[in-house]
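TICKET #2291
ISSUE: user wants both folds in one file
ATTACHMENT 1:
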Amino acid sequence: MATDTFEFKPASRLSRTLAGGSDFFFKLLRIAAFYVGLIVVWQLVADSGLWESYAFAGPTEVWDSLQQNWDNGRIQDAVQTSLKRLAIGFAFAFIIGITMGAAMGGLKWVDETVGSLAVGMQSLPSVTWLPLALIWYGLSERAIIFVVVMGSVFAISISARDGVRNIPPLFRRAGLTFGANHYQMLRYVVMPGMIPSMVQGLKLGWSFAWRSLMAAELLYVSGGLGFLLQLGRDLNNISQVMAVMVVIIAIGLTVDRVIFARLEGWVKERWGLA
């Protein structure tokens, strides 16, 4: 009696490549269609007359303002100044936050004291640090860096604490079984184990730092993207205000896609979470 046999063959590498390329193409097409539609709606709203021209600018006026500020170098100088401040403030916040978080996650009495304070301080909007920064540091770069640090350090510390808490107890017992000392436990068990939670904490901390920086740069004539926003408001130039907002959004998307998306992908692959 004859029986039918079925042979399952894995898809060829070429077919998988073509399928992946097709998905990528349609993804780009969807994104492009969305943003084109968004710009069209934006232009229609600007032409509708719901707002006066001095209160709402269309995409063509915003593009002209963006091109003008790019040609005279204002955008490049502002971006460089803002990113420099962000790098300094976020570096301080990262070091302080990691140290606080590791201590809160590893020592109960630290979590009960400093941890409760960190949770409360995280609820403070970053703009509330501006008056304190002015009193302590005056109109200076240190005031801006202070606001950036205070706006992000507690989010990073809480994420680091949660990362330490989420380490499986089996990892700790295994380290102790192999005779690991305190430094080795910290180096080979605690720090690697907290990385998955820390990625989200770093992303959240960066977003808080970025928004804190924009608020702090409104303090005084200090350069940066926040200053360009304030200058546009003072000149009643809505096109410049919206152009700078577009630049801020573009930088945020770029950092998220280029740095944090890749970091998240690496963590998922490295820790088997994908």
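ATTACHMENT 2:
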Amino acid sequence: MTPTRVNHRLELNAEEMRSLGYRIIDMIVEHITTLNAQPGIAPTDRAAMEAALREPIPDAPSSMDTIIAQFERDIIGNLYRKGHPRDFAFVPNPNNYISVLADTLARGFNIFGGAWVASPGGAMIELVTIDWLRQ
């Protein structure tokens, strides 16, 4: 998915959105379904991360292939895997595929549940969930 033109608005057409979306979903599915075989933590020091990620502000666009490859190598490759079956030491909750899709829906529709006027449905779901947790 190499861009043929500079896209100053960071917008994709429908075909590009689907292609990129399917590619990212495939990455997530691969991560979740192989989690048991991955290391629980990939300790990396600051110097290694500086070498991998410190760069000047780009003066030209990068292809999505390049960005995703760097994400897989330098971000996912150096990840503390909270959903790992041998992780018992930290409070934040592990996610699962359903929560990934729910978050995708919330972010994709830009739902703001912080005020009733902005999203009565989102705010109501939050209230119902809080009531469930209290019970």
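RESOLUTION: both attachments delivered.
EXTRA DETAIL ON ATTACHMENT 2: The mean pLDDT is 82.
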